[in-house]
Amino acid sequence: MANFYNDNPVLKHYLNHPLMEKIVALKERDFADADKYDYAPQNFEDAMDSYDKVLEIVGEICGDIVAENAEGVDHEGPQVVNNRVVYAEGTKRNLDACRKAGLMGMAMPRRLGGLNFPITPYIMAADIVSRADAGFENLWGLQDCAETIYEFASDEQKEKYIPRVCAGETMSMDLTEPDAGSDLQSVMLKASQKEDGSWVLNGVKRFITNGDADIHLVLARSEEGSHDGRGLSMFIYDKRNGGVNVRRIENKMGIKGSPTCELVYKDAPAELVGSRRLGLIKYVMALMNGARLGIAAQSVGLSEAAYREALDYAKDRKQFGKSIIEFAAVDRILSDMKAKLDASRALLYACSRYVDMYKIYDDIAKERALTVEEKKEAKKYSRLADAFTPLAKGMTSEFCNQNTYDCIQIHGGSGFMKDYRCERLYRDARITSIYEGTTQLQVVAAIRHVTTGTYLNWIREMEEMTVKPEDEAVKNTLVFMTQQYADAVKAVTEVEDSKFQDFMARPLVEMAGHIVMGYLLLDDVQRNDDLRRSMNVYVKYGQAEVAKHADFIGNFKPEQLKDYLYEE
Description:
Layout: H1 10-15, H2 20-27, H3 44-76, E1 79-81, E2 84-86, H4 89-100, H5 119-132, H6 134-140, H7 145-152, H8 155-166, E3 171-174, E4 190-193, E5 199-209, E6 215-221, E7 232-238, E8 244-249, E9 260-273, H9 279-316, E10 318-319, E11 322-323, H10 328-365, H11 372-411, H12 421-429, H13 439-451, H14 454-462, H15 472-493, H16 498-503, H17 505-525, H18 532-554, H19 561-564
Helix pairs in contact: 2-10, 3-4, 3-5, 5-6, 5-9, 5-10, 7-9, 9-10, 9-11, 9-12, 10-11, 10-17, 10-18, 11-12, 11-13, 13-17, 14-17, 15-17, 15-18, 17-18
């Protein structure tokens, strides 16, 4: 099959974004590792060449192995044997290939066995893996959990666990329970401290992705008598120590190669991460933000797969004597799919660059004091990462669902059959707007950046960009959409009714998202003319969506809310 990196030139476009030069210089501490490790880059060009070569390996493994195994894994799935998970044979081959290629722990420091990659090329790898098999991305991508160990665990814990992840051991984050889904404050898995100071865990966890992993990050209640988030702490559980059994694997609609487990903890030995009582308030929030960026990458990869399947079928399928792609109705669906895909990817990599910048500055701050200018820049990117992460997760997952739906629509009756890949893509996509925080919860996280002006300030800065003469009309359209958005925000925030503001939150967040994605594509087109068609299509689409929301908000009176909402 094709190399899933080389056959998609837009990935190189994002890998070579102008901000990457600064990201790489900061990540490499001006290439201080060059004399310590023979595989460490000597300069920026050397680093970029390294990312490019590793992504080629990812693309080859995904095209030749992971994608080829995907259908078999979907049919076979994992099993529980003697309270342990046994992966499907294809999953075993996938993991073996990734381990042998050194693709585990990619973002971890070299001193701990990693490749020291910035987040952006790592997320690019996740995008590629997801195109091949979204279910496998859930296993491979949980190496993200090592980032939480690196950020918050002790030096001894880092040196104990991170090299194991880099060598290929798997991870999981054990957060949810039968009575605690999105409401993690309700977690009741009990952490008890013994007389010698060690900890044991008792209770049940549910919906745990890759729940029989080698190394687990576990949210547990450490404070006797507590009932909210302040009584929760974070722990590391090592499967080698025993004490956790897999009760069952959930029978899911999609991502079937990824075992979603119910776990029973019985006096399971565990190690406290960081400080007590900060498990949810600090550590899980950081963990979830990383996971949400990963789901955005998964969504983009699925959108890519859906678009390609739809395009190939539309070219090959003939009706009434010609290929169905020649019919305007089908051509329009494909254009919309491509535009949503390219807009999603633009947002994904803008977000990953912001996350890179703030995380690198956080890491540097542990080594030395930041300068005044660095502190200012770190604060700026931290805020942007906080604003763009829920926006990226929410928008890309919704577009992923729309694109896989449209992929089946283009296939017609054939798309409803399991003989075609699009049927699996559709099932796999549905979870992206649910797990790691539903779209509704992403709106809750994003709305404060609407009301405090984070998105609008970013948009106003983008209005200052100089564009090619042929793009002035698109820019003027975005300026008009921005005024509609600003007026809608004002109209909603002037009403002193929290229920009304909550009701209007999603339209406002979506308006911001459409304008942000439009500007990102406009900026991309100044460097890459291949994205011009998608920019034009997406801005037209976004213009209609913003106008729809502006009309709804402008014509909705607060007193009508009682007639709209269902209340017992």
